Hints:
2 domains, two-stranded antiparallel ribbon, two-stranded antiparallel sheet, 18% helix
Amino acid sequence: xxxxxxxxxxxxxxxxxxxxxCGRCVDVCPHDVFALxxxxxxxxxxxxxxRTPRRHAEIVHRERxxxxxxxxxxxxxxxxxxxxxxxxxxxxxxxMIRGTAPDCGCGGPEKGSCGCGGDCC
Length: 121
């Protein structure tokens, strides 16, 4: 089963120019958000990435991102930015830990103020 998350709240960003094609993001992502693809030469003949790898990561399933931050924490070149600890995944985990309904912990005054788009606050 493939879970889908609220895409309007996903902060995931990938700077392909910094990617070395190591594949750590692919290895650690629990929902196959990333894939390694062949790097394409640019008009100047370079591959246009930090260490000119023959492959680089791409975001192929953004809608599956649960904002856990594993990809960003494991990217040695800091090519990935993700809002670890935000959104629906955090709300669900907080609820499980506390034995309550999902709660993102943002303390926002209005429903959905955390940006996840869910019913957690």
